[in-house]
Amino acid sequence: MVGITVPIFMDNIPLVKCANAAAGAVPTVDLSAPGAAAAVEQACRSVGFFRAINHDVPIALTDALEAGAAAFFALPHKSKLEASASPLGYGSKSIGRNGDVGWLEYILLSVGSGSVAAASLPPSLRAALEEYTDAVREVGARVLELMAEGLGLAEENRDVLRRVVASDEADKMVRVNHYPPCPCPLAAGQRGVTGFGEHTDPQVISLLRSNRTGGLQIMLPDGRWVSVAPDPDSLFVNVGDSLQVLTNGRFQSVKHRVVAPAEGEQSRLSVIYFGGPAPTQRIAPLPELMREGELSLYRDFTWAEYKKAAYKSRLSDHRLGPFELF
Ligand code: GA4
């Protein structure tokens, strides 16, 4: 498919050296099933990640977005650069501002209430992104309610998590990542080129959809990396750092990374919706959840404070470290 139309300097892209574990260890949750709340809770506690099926995002929205994104990434590099407005907009190879690099190009945008923030993108792609993010935001809200239910919160408190990411001021983002096949020859023992280096997401929840090309890997609590089999019909849900804190560590934010496709493989295209809190939102364990005498594992902070610290960090840093009390 489409290639990164910039000169290829492979020397600074790190290689991924570890062996892949077998696929299959990723929990699947049927969001329409009666036991969904318990299954969501179990997945977020044990792995911090799950595959959501029957999520109700219309396939037509996903198809339109995928087509629009593929057309955008096929544009000449110069045209794509017109949509770059660091830190938001188009970017390639460079992730964040602190020296992280990967074999990808992307669009990163903030999502306003109902609209994707201004960036000079083709109008059809903007429209597709807006429709898609509207639909995925709804799924995120539903999943956060299921989490609250699974955590045993009383019916009148089942909206506490959802409300953290629901306000007009909530810091929502969308990212479209394009990983073209990497023309880098691999030496024996090397497993692939880093598309997106290992990290946890700082937000509350992330919902990812990809095309048929694999590459996403998650780290299990025992430190093993697992390849996530691609499934264009599913949404993959990530627990972010803020949700780990809101649940006082009951849910774990999941470390994940992407290995770029090798030469001859298909491009990987993924879209991720990040549900973050409002800047002034206090990120602390939910009082409704705390047992008598239970201590917070973290010192209090706001999302503005955490985001500022996160954006000064490197991708693989343990960002919650400075906020941990024990
Ligand atoms: C990871 C999750 C989201 O993609 C993101 C990323 C952000 C960026 O690409 O600018 C960060 C990364 C992410 C966490 C640490 C910092 C900031 C790159 C980086 C090195 C948009 C986000 O919010 O945090």
Automatic annotation (TrEMBL):
GO terms for molecular function: gibberellin 2-beta-dioxygenase activity; metal ion binding. The gene is LOC123181256. It holds the Pfam family 2OG-FeII_Oxy. Its cofactor is L-ascorbate; Fe cation. Its EC number is 1.14.11.13. The lineage of its organism: Eukaryota, Viridiplantae, Streptophyta, Embryophyta, Tracheophyta. It comes from Triticum aestivum (Wheat). PANTHER family: 2-OXOGLUTARATE (2OG) AND FE(II)-DEPENDENT OXYGENASE SUPERFAMILY PROTEIN-RELATED. Keywords: Dioxygenase, Iron, Metal-binding, Oxidoreductase. This is gibberellin 2beta-dioxygenase. InterPro entries: DIOX_N, IPNS-like_FE2OG_OXY, IPNS-like_sf, Iron_ascorbate_oxido_reductase, Oxoglu/Fe-dep_dioxygenase_dom. Residues 169-277 form the Fe2OG dioxygenase domain. GO terms for biological process: gibberellin catabolic process; response to light stimulus. Belongs to the iron/ascorbate-dependent oxidoreductase family. GA2OX subfamily. It catalyses: gibberellin A1 + 2-oxoglutarate + O2 = gibberellin A8 + succinate + CO2.
